[in-house]
Backbone:
């Protein structure tokens, strides 16, 4: 039976955070960076949107029955307890996916405070399915008992770079970079920098992903925070190279160039952190 009732608040927050980050990483970031999903969220006929959401969430519910984002939620306390656990986990996954969606789209400026509730709800429905897949699979993909291998600085930077390219490479050629920069205000840009650093730190040291115990050994908090800055620095370099390679800086004023770098660095920092977690 699930040990939900015995969990501390810190453990509960860790599990919620793990699912939200998983929502961003596994599938969801690509959808959040795609203008067609923003457009379809606004114009797709309501019956079509509802069918898409119901079918997609139904698949996620089926996944939740087999793979809970709580490792101890085995559903062995009888059929009634198993059903209750599945429904509760599914509801939390949906909430986590909506949370990730609205945080990122608000920071990007795609959603604004003045938007109607209908538009906000429609954008949430178009994004909740891909993010829900990531949240449901977060444990299977990223959690485990593997120990992190001690590496040299150059090897660590190389791994960060590989992860950054892997996630950001498919997004960097797109026009969404300029479009998001056009949407974003400078205060949103600053928030996105802080969000990138926070997600990197949480993935490496707080959410219980693979190798966390080894990464925490004899490491002071200041060292951990510093490592998140290293991840972000590598991500900025990789992101800048990708943007330059695809001509995003051509004729762009310095202010837009800064915003473009911050935008690509968010997704590349997620990839860099994930590479450190996955490659053991």
Residues:
């Amino acid at each position: 039976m699930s040990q939900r009732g015995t969990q501390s608040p810190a453990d509960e927050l860790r599990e919620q955070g793990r699912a939200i980050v998983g929502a961003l990483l596994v599938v969801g970031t690509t959808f959040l960076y795609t203008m067609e999903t923003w457009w379809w969220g606004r114009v797709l006929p309501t019956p079509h949107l509802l069918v898409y959401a119901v079918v997609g969430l139904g698949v996620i519910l089926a996944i939740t029955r087999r793979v809970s984002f709580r490792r101890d939620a085995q559903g062995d306390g009888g059929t009634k307890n198993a059903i209750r656990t599945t429904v509760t986990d599914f509801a939390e996954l949906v909430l986590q996916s909506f949370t990730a969606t609205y945080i990122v789209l608000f920071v990007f400026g795609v959603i604004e405070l003045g938007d109607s509730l209908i538009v906000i709800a429609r954008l949430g429905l178009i994004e909740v399915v891909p993010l829900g897949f990531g949240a449901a699979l977060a444990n299977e993909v990223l959690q485990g008992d593997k120990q992190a291998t001690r590496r040299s600085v150059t090897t660590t930077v190389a791994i960060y770079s590989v992860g950054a390219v892997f996630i950001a490479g498919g997004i960097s050629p797109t026009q969404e970079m300029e479009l998001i920069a056009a949407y974003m205000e400078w205060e949103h840009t600053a928030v996105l920098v802080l969000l990138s650093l926070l997600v990197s730190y949480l993935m490496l040291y707080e959410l219980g992903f693979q190798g966390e115990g080894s990464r925490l050994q004899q490491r002071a908090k200041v060292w951990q925070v510093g490592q998140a800055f290293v991840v972000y620095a590598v991500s900025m370099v990789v992101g800048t190279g990708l943007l330059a390679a695809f001509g995003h800086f051509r004729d762009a004023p310095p202010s837009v160039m800064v915003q473009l770098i911050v935008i690509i660095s968010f997704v590349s920092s997620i990839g860099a952190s994930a590479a450190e977690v996955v490659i053991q």
